[in-house]
Design goal:
480 residues; four-stranded parallel β-sheet; 19 helices; 5% strand; globular
Length: 480
Amino acid sequence: MATTATQQTSSGGARVKVQQFGRMLSGMVMPNIGAFIAWGLITALFIPTGWYPNESLAALVDPMIKYLLPLLIGYTGGQMVHGKRGGVIGAVVTMGVIVGSSIPMFLGAMLVGPLAGWVLKQFDKAVDGKIKAGFEMLVNNFSLGIIGGVLSVGALKGIGPLVEGLTNILSNGVEFLVNHNLLPLINIIIEPAKVLFLNNAINHGVLGPIALEQSQRVGKSILFMLESNPGPGLGILLAYWLVGKGSAKSSAPGAIIIHFLGGIHEIYFPYILMNPRLILAVIGGGVSGTFTFQMLGAGLVASPSPGSIFAYFAMTPKGGYLPMLAGVIVATVVSFALAALLLKTVKKNDEEEMDIEEAAAKVKDMKSAGTAAQTAATATTIAANVRTKANVNKIVFACDAGMGSSAMGASVLRKKLQSAGVNITVVNSAVSEIPADADIVVTQKTLTDRAIAVNPNAEHISIDNFLKSPKYDELVERLK
């Protein structure tokens, strides 16, 4: 028993580390998704094989993917570690890996951006309080310039060629799978990884950079579709809607809209956790969908983020709609058929499994594994900052990236306030970028400590489920 417990702890620790790594990668990529979409649209429209070929406008494509996008990632990575100074040095050093390589340096930017920010942060800590008055600006500017220059030269001569070699190895591996019709097997890993929140490490860390390089060479890449295919999740939700029972059945239609149209795949994870056997259904859907994509030559020009069917249409090149739709439909049908069969064969004594709320809470626990519980000081801070209607002008809903769950939570809360006749601004943001003028900050429990550190003067409300929380109604009643 002791050995088993040790193995489980080790396995859980490894999963947490991969989750944290994936969260860091996601934090660098997600704020810049709009720029990736802009590049994808320009590519789809104006390259020689695009919808409206235009040689002059197509000149934007290469500089954007080679310089703009890696620099944005490098800046964001540095900023995550050391604020604006970290962002500036992250961009400077990213320029080194860009010049030191002949391929788009997304992996290089993800590596050197945070590293450069960390190095500068250590220097700033070392000289803190030791600079003579009046010399602060001089030291700050020259330290960033000197350290950034040295690191950028090292990145040009060392990291750039190294990352290019690694990317070539990974690209060759992917091409081997494609050439031997083995690419669909990747979904055996990807689909369970999504439910365990390891998808960011796989998608943003490996598939995304290789796919962008492939897209630049041939105009599209199937790798964009491996993790983002909404078909497997749609099949699960349709099965619950048509043959499921209880709260899961009644909540499935709303989840379908959020998942398939909104592109937020996290919404279907609790439905799998209610019946873990359904992981076989999403694996079957993912494998069959990727097989269909491969057989029909499907591909996207850029990342469809979020993984909505609308984003799929926007990123599909001219003439590629039928292969794209075929893969999504096949994945949906296979996933639905397997899930419906598994749901219909549930034993009587298995029907007492966790309900949808318990499963959703379990998802949150898994996603936040490794995060410390709230301290007594946190509770004291929250209690001390409780606001009344008279001094509440802005409510901020914050999550890791500030795009997915926070946007959904803000929308739910905004509608409740409007229905109650309460005119208060409700916005969403990343937990690291909570505005200083926020009066109330709503976060998932595991992010509350971080939110308080960013804005200790606001009232902080912790919730479990961003779609349905009794604290929303309590807050509305208090502010009416």
